[in-house]
Amino acid sequence: AAPRPEPLRISEPPQRAERVVILRESAQPYYIEGYHRPDSRHPDDAVYDAISDIMSSGRTSRLYRALVRDKKIAAGASGFSQFPGDKYPHLFAFFAVSTPGHTPEELRDAIRAEIERIKSEDVTDEELQMVKTRARANLIRRLGDNSGLAFQLGSYQARYGDWRELFRSVERIEKVTKADIRRIAQKTFVPENRTVGILESTRLAGAAPSGGM
Q1: Nearest alpha-carbon partner for 39 in 75, 86, 79
Q2: How far apart are CA 70 and CA 90, in angstroms?
Q3: How far is Cα 209 from Cα 32, in angstroms, rounded to an integer?
Q4: In sequence order, which residues have a C-beta less than 8 Å from that of residue 37 and are 6 or more positions away?
Q5: For the segment 7-53, what is each residue's pLDDT rounded down to a tens digit?
Q6: 174-183 pLDDT tens trace
Q7: Residues 77, 63 contacting (CB under 8 angstroms)
Q8: Please, which of 38, 110, 128, 138 could form a disulfide with 42 given CB 3.0 to 4.6 Å?
Q9: Is 187 in a helix, a strand, or coil?
Q10: Is residue 51 within 8 Å of 131, Cβ to Cβ?
């Protein structure tokens, strides 16, 4: 018998410069950029959830209205946390798929314009209230049947060691302010914290397919 070893915890070093990966394939053009953020236990996790909701929740979201409805340069656009998972530090990612005749560069510029908006301007009272209303509604929907109830309570018990965190997560969303959103956006969405992935279509460009670079 011996004492149980300490859990192995490895933290990725901070990113110091933008990273860009470009693939050229005979495929639909695609653009994605991700920003490092802390794990789901971080005190500002609810603020990241609020930003994700404002940028991406449905047809009233900022990215949908700007890229899909108004500019018509994207077939779909979203900004979301938990990529590829939220147990450990992960990415807040923004992506878009272009419509015919439009390029990943256009998607990049439009996405970054919306990122700059949320960094420099307060969200509206209506937007913030919609975030909080949807959080409560989503909780009720997730607990609407036995399997949903079991899954949610079990997930939060396993992740946090306390099933009550499921309900506290909604309470934390209720406390998010406009200032919180600007603070986290300004801290997170900066060039040196950004990794970009671009899929360029050789079919549209008329060039022969090549490997990534």
Answers
A1: 86
A2: 31
A3: 20
A4: 48, 81, 89, 90, 91, 92, 188
A5: 877 788 899 999 999 999 988 899 999 999 999 889 999 999 999 99
A6: 999 999 999 9
A7: yes
A8: 38
A9: helix
A10: no
